Amino acid sequence: MLIDYDSKNKVFHLQTKHSSYVMGLDHGYLLHHYWGKKITTYRGSRPIVYAPRSFAPYADPTHRGFSLSTLPLEYPAYGNGDFRHPAYQVQLENGSTVTDLHYAGHVIYSGKKKLDGLPSTYVEQDQEAQSLDIILEDSVAGLTVVLTYCVFRDFDAITRSVRFENRGTKSLRLLRAASTSVNFRDDQFDSLTFYGSHNNERNINRRPLYPDMQVIDSTRGASSPQHDPFFALMRKNADETQGEVFGFSLVYSGNFAAQIEVDQYRTVRASIGINPFDFSWLLNSGASFQTPETVMVYSDCGLGGMSRTYHQLYRSRLARGKHRDRLRPILINNWEATYFKLSEEKLLAIAKEAQKAGIELFVLDDGWFGHRNNDKSSLGDWFVDRQKLPHGLSWLSNRIHEMGLLFGLWFEPEMISPDSDLYREHPDWSLHVPDRPRSLSRYQLVLDMSRADVRDYLLQALSAILSSANINYVKWDMNRHMTEIGSALLPPERQRETAHRYMLGLYELIDKLTRAFPDILFESCSSGGGRFDPGMLYYMPQTWTSDNTDAICRLKIQYGTSVVYPPITMGAHVSAVPNHQVGRITSLKTRGDVAMSGNFGYELDLTKLTDEEKQQVRQQVTFYKRIRPLIQFGDFYRINSPFEDDDTAWCFVSPDQSEAIGFYFKVLASPAQVLKAFRFQGLNPQALYENLATGEVFGGDELMNAGLNVPDEKGDFRSYVWQFKRVQG
Predict the structure, then answer these.
(1) Cβ 553 vs Cβ 201: under 8 Å
(2) In a 10 Å sphere around its CB, with 0-12 CB exposed, 13-18 middle and 19+ buried, how is residue 342 labelled?
(3) Computed over its alpha carbons, how large is the radius of gyration of the chain?
(4) Cα angle at 646 between 643 and 647, to 5 degrees?
(5) 573 - beta bridge partners?
(6) Helix, strand, coil fractions of the chain, as percent rounded to 5
(7) Mode of pairing for the β-strands spanning 406-411 and 172-184
């Protein structure tokens, strides 16, 4: 049993393979007792201490120690004694914002329910998970809040979400709605979060907690490259391979906020959910509101253990569809080869070279539609530009397929150019606020995805294109954030619902398209990694990791991304040198080795390569096809961090530990070079492994503990690869 309720002591005990999560009831309040390493049976060895505190209001007039300001409330409110940040806040018709939730019942059931209108993890059979609904009520407000927990049988993960229901006769206004709030009894943690920008996504920031509020968030209408909807709390001694780590990952693609508060008694409250900034939701009588899902992962094997749980879960029970378990094709994208100056002749020439190299998918990027000669026009006009493609899309797709390649297409459906037929016909379809100018970014505006008529148009227009030719892949881009967030169709009292309604509308549109075209592989993109989040992975199983294709920059970007997201989700391409983003020159080998550590492809003009370079591309493609199952479905281990050292290293190990491949990247050479070792992780210590390049055989324990010498070679930006296969044990 994954969830147990002790009716005598009123305690809920949730158990994964290696962790326990415990809650209990007291005075009708739901209190958090424990989250950590698995306990066989929870008997309350460390009960909550009800100590009277100065300035602490007490909820029970007969018990001064029973104060909401110090109790570890599982889903706290504000206004009746708890001065820490609340998980939720509701405004009543009389203007007050005081609510008080009490336990009203619970239900334990097999399986996992879908969330209404939102992406979430899932199960394929009910026996894979067990769920718990805890029902809380405020009888004065007529408010019912259902806390839903799901425990997976095969993953060390627990999910949480919340549903608000107005069962009263008067309207309520939801002002804050976190998906998760967890109280810890001490503050001996570091927080780990991501920060970055366009072309510089998912840098790792680890810092000690301090007595105050620490917040990461997005108000951009997207999860953003600035922050990711994720944070972890790490014990002070925790590192990549050992120590306790508590991960929080929000399955959502819009505005979010993650908060970590250390109070005056050095206890911690951590929460994550929809950003309350500029958010409210009107709940009329009988209406409900569903929050996104949080995936919580506990690991006592360091950050790496947490990451591998997220990788396995997100790869198999978040991503969906036919392509979830399929090997992903090696692609060539024409963007950096042609930009907007594309022609049938040039595209076919690139495709011909791709076919010779063994590449499997040709992707036609921006510039094929409307009158799109630059980024100033035509978004929204989803018809083929016959000046560039005089024979049409179907003809081009057929020629590509005749070469033995699949064919893919770029879209940016959520945007509209003021210089477009669509905008001239429907200027009210963009997000805007009356009597205010409409801010441009990349010369474009954002379509109002909260509107059904906008979604209907996009569904029809995109379906027409996807039905008009043999299209196997779609790159779905989104290249600006939201400003003037308002909708022409929403009444004044619902304008602050626009950003969330946008996300619900976007999810609905993508869900319809991916179901209507199940054979197409969809890839998410937002100027690269600007919307790399679990919400998008539910619909599109891979994401373009960054517009920055420089191999050395990608070491940090891909390393940071791997903290939560599996390598199979990371688009990683070899591009030309000098690199178009930073001007760096790196060898084709190094560029290839970095890109082969993810979802492999090319983004350059193959026709301009020398014969020697073309031969090297063919060798890279052949090699990646051999290792592709290991890269895309193996277990990933980070070994050297580019955020801590000049060198980077990682390895992939097959689930049965029969194969392994290690990558080592030296960034800058130095005099009197220190001789370094590469030590595998994740191997079977009792097994023997053969080096496929040299035929040498070593024990798994030797490869992990003694390791291999890294070649002592001169030169910057070097990469080394070792491939091993188990021969005994």
Answers:
(1) no
(2) buried
(3) 27
(4) 95
(5) 601
(6) 20, 35, 45
(7) unpaired
**DSSP reduced 3-state for 528:** coil
Q: pLDDT tens digits, residue range 179-229?
A: 999 999 999 999 999 999 999 999 999 999 999 999 999 999 999 999 999
Nearest in space to 515 (alpha carbons), one of 385, 268, 692, 320: 320
The closest of 25, 288, 265, 20 to 156, measured between CA atoms, is 20
- Please state, in angstroms and rounded to a whole number, the distance separating the CA atoms of residues 517 and 519: 6
Alpha carbons 12 and 4: distance in angstroms, whole number = 6
Count of CB atoms within 10 A of residue 33's CB?
21
Cβ partners under 8 Å of residue 671, min gap 6: none
Q: Is the peptide bond before 491 cis (omega within 30 degrees of 0)?
A: no
pLDDT, tens only, 120-131: 999 999 999 999
Contact yes or no for 248/584 (Cβ under 8 A): no
CA dist list (Å): 122 to 129, 315, 518, 689: 9, 11, 18, 37
DSSP string computed for 179-237: EEEEEES---EEEEEEEEETTEEEEEEEEE--SSEEEEE--SSS--SS--SEEEEEETT
Classify 728 as helix, strand or coil: strand
Which regions in the chain score pLDDT beneath 50? Answer: none
Identify the CA nearest to 147 among candidates 99, 246, 75.
Answer: 75
In 3D space, the residue among 716, 719, 707, 712 whose CA is nearest the CA of residue 672 turns out to be: 712
Name the E strands within 27-126.
Answer: 29-37, 88-91, 102-110
Q: Please, what is the Cα angle at 532 between 528 and 535, to 5 degrees?
A: 140
Instruction: Give me 242's structure tokens.
Output: 């050992």
- Give the pLDDT confidence score for residue 609 in this predicted structure: 98
Q: Rounded to an integer, what distance in angstroms lies between the CA atom of residue 511 and that of residue 82?
A: 40
* DSSP class of 569: G
Q: Do the beta carbons of residue 385 and residue 368 sit within 8 Å? A: yes
Which residues of 41-98 form beta strands (DSSP E)? 88-91
Q: 108: exposed, middle or buried (C-beta count within 10 Å: 0-12, 13-18, 19+)?
A: middle
**3-class SS of residue 314:** helix
Q: State how far the Cα of 180 lies from the Cα of 159, in Å rounded to an integer.
A: 9
- Alpha-carbon distance of 89 to 394, in angstroms, equals 53
Per-residue CA distances from 420 to 416, 468, 522 (Å): 7, 22, 25
Q: Length of the chain in residues, anyone? A: 729
Q: Which two tokens stand for residue 277?
A: 């900034």
The CA-based angle 257-262-263, given to 5 degrees, is 120
Query: What burial letters (b/e) apply to 655-685, b meaning 16+ CB within 10 Å?
Result: eebbbbbbbbbbbeeeeeeeebebbbbbbbe
Rounded CA separation 141/166 (Å): 8
Helix (H), strand (E) at residue 596:
none
The rounded distance, in Å, linking the Cα atoms of 634 and 628 is: 9
Tokens 């799109």 found at: 372
H or E segment to which residue 187 belongs: none
Strands 688-691 and 473-476 turn out to be unpaired
- Tell whether pTM > 0.85: yes
Q: Which of 453, 114, 531, 165 is nearest to 293 (CA)?
A: 114
Which helix (H) or strand (E) segment holds residue 195: the answer is: strand 189-197
What are the catalytic residues? 477, 547
> How far apart are alpha carbons 33 and 43 in whole angstroms?
11
Q: Are 625 and 638 in contact (CB under 8 A)?
A: no
**What pLDDT does residue 65 have?**
75
Between CA 132 and CA 118 the distance in angstroms is 19
Identify which of 80, 275, 93 has the alpha carbon closest to the alpha carbon of residue 179. Answer: 275
Place of tokens 């798994």: 700
Q: What 3-state DSSP class applies to 168? A: coil
- Spacing of C-alpha 315 from chain mean position: 11
117 sits in the region (left: phi over 0; alpha: psi -120 to 50; else beta) called: left
